[in-house]
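User: I'm designing a mutation panel for Increased recombination centers protein 6 and want to avoid disrupting the core. Could you give me a predicted structure to guide residue selection? Please restate the sequence first so the numbering is unambiguous.

Assistant: Good idea. Sequence first, for numbering, then the predicted structure tokens:
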Amino acid sequence: MIPNNVLVIGPPNSGKIRIAQCFSKDVDTTSIPKESHSGLIYRCELNTKYYKTSVNLLIEECPEERPSDTDKFIEGLNQWYKGFVSEEYVELRKALDGVIFTMNSNSVSVSDWEMIMDQYTRIKESLDERIFSVVMVAALDAPNDALLEQYEDGCIQRGIEFVYEGHEGTNEYKEKLGMERIKEILQTHTWSQTTSSTSEEYDKHKLDRIDNMTKGLLQPDDGEEMPLDKIMEKLRLEKSKVEKMKPENKESYVKSVIEDLLQFI
């Protein structure tokens, strides 16, 4: 099977390798160069109720030489972007199904964050609308809640999902957090290259979901949320997020929400 491709790009010490190792299960560090992580490729296999597929996680680091600081990263990112949008890389852009931007909040000021996010947005806009886009902030030293909220609002306005690596479990809306949320995004994305699961597996899963939702609707409320309630609650939350977005970002974000909700239908 031809693998799908996801770009993972960010400065040094921002979690790129941790993401790649988490999903590829390749924890060998002997082949990782100390000078730069650019050019590394990790392969992961995704097996769900609906499909099987392979994904290449393509690592890019800016700047390409270490050590680095924020100014060097911004300069390196600008140079990388100029090459990325050139005719030379048109086939690579077409081959991408997603992009994961990474950040290290410890070495970035709020003003730098805005500049970097603007550049991340330009990279996102140079790609096809079907791709998913995520910003993951590395959990080296936990930022305060107010700063995380500011980061998330900035991502929402740009039509990019925000994930903080240090979060675990689910939030008050039953949404997965941290690495589990990235895993969920990978599993629910509509990939360019997949092999369908057997029809028997698909039908069984579908019947199980219908049975569970039917029982939930027929049984009296026992204090637990029913699947339908969770879906409606998530829709209300996402609607409030969309209202904060710029008009040009709303459609792609809504499509990504619908993709997520399809797993519950």
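For picking mutation sites, this is relevant: The first helix runs from residue 16 to 24. The chain has a mean pLDDT of 84.
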